[in-house]
Hints:
The complex is a heterodimer.
Chain A: H1 2-13, H2 17-43, H3 55-80, H4 88-104, H5 110-135, H6 139-158, E1 163-164, H7 167-174, H8 188-214, H9 222-244, H10 254-272, H11 274-284, H12 286-291, H13 296-322, E2 324-325, H14 333-343, H15 355-374, H16 379-402, H17 408-413
Antiparallel strand pairs in A: 1-2
Helix pairs in contact in A: 1-2, 2-15, 3-10, 3-13, 3-14, 3-15, 4-5, 4-6, 4-13, 5-6, 5-13, 7-13, 8-9, 10-11, 11-13, 14-15, 15-16
Chain B: E1 7-18, E2 21-32, E3 36-40, H1 47-55, E4 64-69, E5 72-73, H2 79-84, E6 87-90, H3 102-106, E7 113-114, E8 117-118, H4 120-133, H5 149-162, E9 167-171, H6 179-194, E10 198-202, H7 206-212, E11 215-220, E12 223-229, H8 230-233, H9 237-245, E13 263-273, E14 281-291, E15 295-299, H10 306-313, E16 320-328, E17 331-333, H11 338-343, E18 346-349, H12 353-357, H13 364-369, E19 377-378, E20 381-382, H14 384-398, H15 414-426, E21 432-436, H16 444-459, E22 463-468, H17 471-477, E23 480-485, E24 488-494, H18 500-507
Parallel strand pairs in B: 3-10, 3-11, 6-9, 9-10, 15-22, 15-23, 18-21, 21-22
Antiparallel strand pairs in B: 1-2, 1-4, 4-5, 7-8, 11-12, 13-14, 13-16, 16-17, 19-20, 23-24
Main location (chain B): membrane
GO molecular function (chain B): ATP binding; ATP hydrolysis activity
Pfam family, one (chain B): ABC_tran
Amino acid sequence: MSRFKDLQKNLFGGTTSNARQFGMIFTLVAIVLLFQFLTANNLGVGFGDGLTLRSDNLIALFQQNSYILILAIGMLMVIVAGHIDLSVGSVAAFTGILVAKSMADWSLPWPLAILFGLAIGAVIGAWQGFWVAYVGVPAFIVTLAGMLLWRGANQYVGNADTIPVPKGFQDIGAGFLPEVGPDTGYNNLTLLLGLAACLAVVWRELQARKTRKEMNAEPAPLWVSIFRMAVMVAVLIFVTLRFAGGRVGTSFPISGLILVALVLIYGFYTRNTAGGRHIYAVGGNSRAAELSGVKLKRVNFFVMMNMSILASLAGMIFVARSAASGPQDGLSWELDAIAAVFIGGAAVSGGIGTISGSIVGGLVMAVLNNGLQLLGVGSDRVQIIKGLVLLLAVALDVYNKSQGRFSIIGSLTRPFRRDEPSKPAPTSDTGNEPAKTTVAG
Amino acid sequence: MTTNAPILLEMRDITKEFPGVKALSDVNLVVKAGEIHAICGENGAGKSTLMKVLSGVYPYGTYSGDIVYQGSAARFSDIRQSENAGIVIIHQELALIPDMSITENIFLGNEPRRRGAIDWKSAQRQALDLMARVGLSEDPDTLIKDIGVGKQQLVEIAKAFAKDVKLLILDEPTAALNEADSQHLLDLLRGFRERGVTSIMISHKLNEIEAISDSITILRDGKTVETLDVKADGVDEDRIVRGMVGRELSSRFPDHTPNIGEVFFEVRDWNVRHPISADRQVCKHESFNVRKGEIVGFAGLMGAGRTELAMSIFGRSYGVFESGQIFKDGKEIKLKSVADAIDNGLAYVSEDRKAIGLNLLDDIKTSTVAAKLSKISHHGVLNEVEEYDAAEAYRKELRTKAPTVDEGVSKLSGGNQQKVVLAKWMFTDPDLLILDEPTRGIDVGAKYEIYGIIQRLADQGKGVIVISSELPELIGLCDRIYTVFEGQITGELAREQADPETLMKQMTSTKKMQTR
């Protein structure tokens, strides 16, 4: 019993970031296995032959969702700071059409076109950030306006036509890691990537143990650490072999690589830097943050601008994957990104949430989408199910929290949450409710 | 009005506890029908809590003791019930909707109906009648935001009459009013008394209390001190002050021998305007200084402008800066943002730690380092181990009661939260700490510890400013005390000269007294 509790505490309730990450991956794996079982069952074949975990399905899953997950990264920071961004789909579409046009009409080389696209995102972001941070218009309004504005701009510029993009550009959305080195039957670069990921997992676990020791705090028991590492490495090896061993010519997608790089960079930024800490401070209590010397306006400007830059990147990846930019690109992306962030454990009122949580939240939605499609459920019913999952997941959590009871979703997503107090303290002394100050802007 | 008038309300042995603090203990209050009964006491003496118990904000069962109202036991479980019984409170912060008309506000939640729809004709007629009773001559369609505070106050009272009030409770009714409006309000209360309405009035303005009330109940530290009959006992302001502040000062403060150096921080001719109404001056020509190793107190009533002064100095985080200079170590410094203030060695511990002092989502270690992340980061990258060590060191030094520094601050008691806030500002290595109500809502034991921390900070050569509404605290802790009244510094007293009566006088009058 005590061993089991030990395991539970260290795997799901632990305070080290490693423990949290492990818990998240566990949750996702459970959902993947569920669909693997259901798809196998549906076809009447063995568990191993289910559709969900087939190489081509995993690759497609990644390619189809990488741009939503990239949006979720930026959206997480916007939501943690206490705002929202409804314009991301339109920003993506507007960037997409301009970039496509720049290559088709002005024959800009594709690497420059990518930089051009990012610059468009930065300018749009600066525009929206200005209204939010310096004028104080709520982000909901600014980005609702942006949603109309950039969608209209996309159709105005593109004449509501589609514009094709050249091959080199298409690689960022549709490309794979190339074949190099000896013929191993697998894609060698993907194997290397997987190996690096395994080493990184082991290294991080050891680092975390070292940090705990330096703090004079008890690290997780050694056997738990080893167990955790073993499971993570096993999952990574399995996934690597799937990606590396698919149809010839396919491997780990380039867009996935971009996503992984962004997750690492932004994960580090939000967790380990002063700038990241400031975003949480602003969302948690903007007045307290201001009185602690945080430059409120700068933080708000930054998160809005950053979101638009990531939206423009997502837009380019989408255009690259579909080989052309069109007037309907990016429709309702904002909703998918926002759903990912909230399923990933972010708080509506700001101050709580993690990048990795949002990615898992996005993947949960993606797997759900994909799994239901594999089961032959029509897109109408898929939408209904996704909507209900989002609502129930958050509602159950809100309800349980308000009752001060054990929260099922909470216990599943707790590892994603950043240091959330499990229950508001009995308000002491004066009897005043802890005032949750509204977030400015 | 006379001693043999029937008793309208009796509150017996009322005890109300909050976690860790006894806000009221065995309080008794007897109000006779048709009188104006004043309740006096320092901030935090329990006046508002008592009124919240009476009006059902704290429902029956959450306190102990009995309330007898109109001869029978009253057990209100919410405000609606007490209002139905004719008890109406008018709070210091008016509960009016600025964008609604006078009529709409008077009948808000109490709308006269005809066949399900609001009968505006009848509402209008009744509103005019009620407005006449409170001496308010305005078009009833005027929006609340378009009339002055004094008239808004009258609308509140008219609203009370719309509910058929028998016991009218006014919490600091004249705090925001000018002289003429205050006078009008007091006359009005006298008129109500003649028509048999009973009033309870909470006020800091002792001259008004003396002028208008028939009886006075004085509360101190959540206990009833005494009830005075104004005429029979020949009560005057000095008598009330004595009742409010008279208490033992010994042993509530750690022994301390100050080691005071020279003046290192000085503010000259400081002028600040209100952030919204630009014609209101919140700080008027205020000048003061702080010496190294000195604990300087700022005494004043609620709304005197002490917090506003402190925050406007702390990187202009309040109001609109108009003019004034700040000198530190002989050099003028310009503090245009909080970051400037922190960089120049200032720290401000706010009076409301939950609303603006802490991020309640944080744990102890994140809170501790929040105001100076640069100290635990290298090129912007945070060092978790240094963060943990710093927080742990302060947890030990300040004896914050928490299992680890990973504990969320929302789970801590008020006293321990305050220690975390202190740690957060001590971590910034300030030269001058401004502590705004540092012991508000903290129990006696934790107060003693906080005093000890403040004294140790002074002994390290730092200057400490303590803003407090508790006079004994200022007298027991501070080496020097400034008094503030309506945005002006009205006096400066050395510790030896400071006694509650003198302070209270200077805190309630614009007359500038030179006692040094």
